[in-house]
């Protein structure tokens, strides 16, 4: 079926169609993980939680989430994870009856994590569509959302991992901010920060929209008094967004640095337990990951990183007229990309990419040879005549790469093989 024919078929009820396709896109990798449950695990650490054969959902970071949900922050390395996701798993897993199902506590946590992750991904798909419709055309939004259904790491996103919920909260928060419902946006994005520490980066787009809105930047800068008032009005929403991270780091500081022998990081100008643990246990830091042994992992994430860095090219090629609206999201995406490239385990870009709307906007811009100005994110046209029927070669390469590597990644995840 031609891509444009698919777009037209779901155009009448796009959100219902997207929800249905999103459910299917989550059920397929979930079912494959179940079929691969007998695959010998490269790492048996998940069994330390319960002593039973571990679920294929409990791999890598999911083990830490389950451990925190079950026993709290027992180990120092757990500080690298925000409490929102484990607390949610702990609270909701109790509704699964263990005695009648024969599933222990860890198994119930894993099952609830899978259910929440899959449901959140469906919701994130819808919110990506709604967010994109606010700043672009429905056909463009539909293209981005359909591409979103083919993530590079589908197995990870159908397991007990926090990225789908973080994506749902982030997209919803941005959508509310674009609609200028800043207080509600801040509360939703605070929820995102409680799930992942990188949620603090969302203060950038929200503050930008509050200060500049949809006006050209230079026009706003010519009115310094009004700009100053807007800057002051940004303080409460920004404080709300970063509050979960500040609260958790304050708690860990007083728990670990008061009384007894103080560790060296406690005396830092900015004593963050998060940074200390990330560096100590995961070797996270500026260029720490750049070593010959990690070249394969960096190359593996290269397609995602290239799409992120191609945003300026897409903006120029599509002759966008609303760059001042999209700029805060571009800056947010660039900050996240540079963080992944230079100061993190770069291969996690394969799963973190689902939390960044700009990547999918960039892919949608590259997907077709859009005619005239309708390829622009801000084009006024609402039909599908603004692009040619055939996808570009670059987008076909992306789709086939996500399908092939996605299948491989499911096997790797089920067997607890790297990359994480």
How would you characterize this protein structure?
It is found in: Endoplasmic reticulum membrane. InterPro entries: PIG-V/Gpi18. It is a multi-pass membrane protein. α6 packs parallel to α9 (163-178), α11 packs antiparallel against α13 and α11 (203-212) packs antiparallel against α18. The protein has 420 residues and is mostly helical. The chain has one domain. It is globular, with a radius of gyration of 22 Å. It has 21 helices and two strands. A two-stranded antiparallel sheet has the order 1-2. The chain has helices at residues 3-9, 14-35, 61-71, 84-93, 98-101, 105-135, 138-148, 154-157, 163-178, 182-195, 203-212, 217-221, 224-257, 273-282, 295-300, 302-309, 311-317, 323-342, 349-352, 357-367, 393-414, and strands spanning 368-370, 387-391.
């Amino acid at each position: 079926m031609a891509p444009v024919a698919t777009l037209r078929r779901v155009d009448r009820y796009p959100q219902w169609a997207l929800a249905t396709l999103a459910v299917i896109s989550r059920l397929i990798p979930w079912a494959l993980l179940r079929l691969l449950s007998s695959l010998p695990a490269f790492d048996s650490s998940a069994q330390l939680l319960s002593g039973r054969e571990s679920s294929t959902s409990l791999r890598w970071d999911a083990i830490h989430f389950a451990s925190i949900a079950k026993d709290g922050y027992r180990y120092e390395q757990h500080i690298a994870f925000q409490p929102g996701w484990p607390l949610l798993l702990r609270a909701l897993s109790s509704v699964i009856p263990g005695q009648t199902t024969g599933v222990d506590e860890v198994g119930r946590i894993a099952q609830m994590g899978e259910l929440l992750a899959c449901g959140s991904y469906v919701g994130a798909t819808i919110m990506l569509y709604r967010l994109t419709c606010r700043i672009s055309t429905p056909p463009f939004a539909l293209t981005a959302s359909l591409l979103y259904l083919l993530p590079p790491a589908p197995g990870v996103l159908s397991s007990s991992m926090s990225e789908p919920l973080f994506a749902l909260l982030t997209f919803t928060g941005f959508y509310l901010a674009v609609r200028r419902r800043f207080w509600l946006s801040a509360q939703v994005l605070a929820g995102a920060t409680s799930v992942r520490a990188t949620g603090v980066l969302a203060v950038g787009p929200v503050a930008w929209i509050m200060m500049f809105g949809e006006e050209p930047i230079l026009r706003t800068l010519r009115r310094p008094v009004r700009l100053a008032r807007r800057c002051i009005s940004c303080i409460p929403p920004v404080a709300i967004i970063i509050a979960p991270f500040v609260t958790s780091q304050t708690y860990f500081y007083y728990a670990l640095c008061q009384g007894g022998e103080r560790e060296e990081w406690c005396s830092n100008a900015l004593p963050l337990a998060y940074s200390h643990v990330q560096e100590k246990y995961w070797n996270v830091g500026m260029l720490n990951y750049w070593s010959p042994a990690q070249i394969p992992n960096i190359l593996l994430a290269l397609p995602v990183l290239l799409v992120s860095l191609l945003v300026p090219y897409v903006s120029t090629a599509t002759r966008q007229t609303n760059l001042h609206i999209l700029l805060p999201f571009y800056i947010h995406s660039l900050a996240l990309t540079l963080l992944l490239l230079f100061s993190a385990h770069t291969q996690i870009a394969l799963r973190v990419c689902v939390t960044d709307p700009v990547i999918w906007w960039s892919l949608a811009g590259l997907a077709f040879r859009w005619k005239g100005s309708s390829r622009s994110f801000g084009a006024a046209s609402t039909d599908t005549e603004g692009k040619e029927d055939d996808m570009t070669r670059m987008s076909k390469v992306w789709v086939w790469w996500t399908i092939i590597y996605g299948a491989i990644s499911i096997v790797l995840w089920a067997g607890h093989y790297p990359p994480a």
